[in-house]
Amino acid sequence: MRVREYQHRDIAAMTDIWNEAVDEGDAFENEEKLEALGAEKFFSELVYCGVAVDFGGNLHGLYILKKTETEGLAEAEFAVKSPSRNMKAGADLVNDCIKNAKAKGFTGVVLCAVVEKNPVVSHLCEKFGFKKQEADGRFLLNLQ
Fold first, then answer.
1. Rg for the chain (alpha carbons), in Å?
2. pTM of the model
3. Residue 54 maps to which CATH number?
4. Which of 24, 44, 52, 48 is nearest to 98 (CA)?
5. What range does the domain containing 48 cover?
6. Predicted confidence (pLDDT) per residue in 40-61, tens digit
7. How many domains would you assign to the chain?
């Protein structure tokens, strides 16, 4: 599995992965599904989008990185399609996200409070050094 920046040809698979995560309700604060035309615009406006791809070119997961209202902080969201879980795609996505957030000059990465509902994702985030913020339930990783 490798993680690379998304390409236009990935939009349909990314939309499916995103919509599955929205249906499950334990990955994103966003409860709105993406439609094919809106998905391309949505992904293109973000700071960065990475996709986990196997050596056959199949997409297994994605992450998005976007600016927050707090100077220096990026917000990240992750999704791995259900048949691909337990294949290390999540760890690969988080690792790539941290690398790209640093490269883009962010001083920290925050994950939405919904992550708290998902014990697998919570554990993964803690493994990478994210700390739960008691005030709002979000997870924060200081990159400095």
1. 14
2. 0.89
3. 3.40.630.30
4. 48
5. 2-110
6. 999 999 999 999 999 999 999 9
7. 1
